[in-house]
Specification:
By secondary structure, the protein is an alpha+beta fold. Strands 1-2-3-5-4 form a five-stranded mixed beta sheet. It is built from two helices and five strands, in the order H-E-E-E-H-E-E. A hairpin with a 5-residue loop joins strand 4 and strand 5. The longest helix has 15 residues.
Length: 117
Amino acid sequence: MEEHLQTLLSGAVSFPIAWGTLGSGTNTPRAVMFRTSGVRDMTMSGPAGMQTRVQIDCYGSTFAEAITASRAIRTALEGYRGGPIQGAFLQSTRDQFDDDAGLLHRVMLTFSIHHRD
């Protein structure tokens, strides 16, 4: 799922997006993904896939830049089905201005990703 999600979003947006790190450079916007939880779906006959929560933080030098980046992510991912991903559903969105991180604005999206292993 992780590789598929990375490929999907990297091809859909015009800014860098990576797992766990903002990477090098100072250009904005940019985004970082984190797995916040994962739960195995079970049936009486055994495992039936996974439900993983993925937080995607969109950073910008202005709020307008961060929110525009988050909208691009939402357009690409919300309701998506393909490859190992059986469904991607937006669960929450939050905004934050991080004075300690070089005056970056951040919009945080949390998706529930239902997928096969």
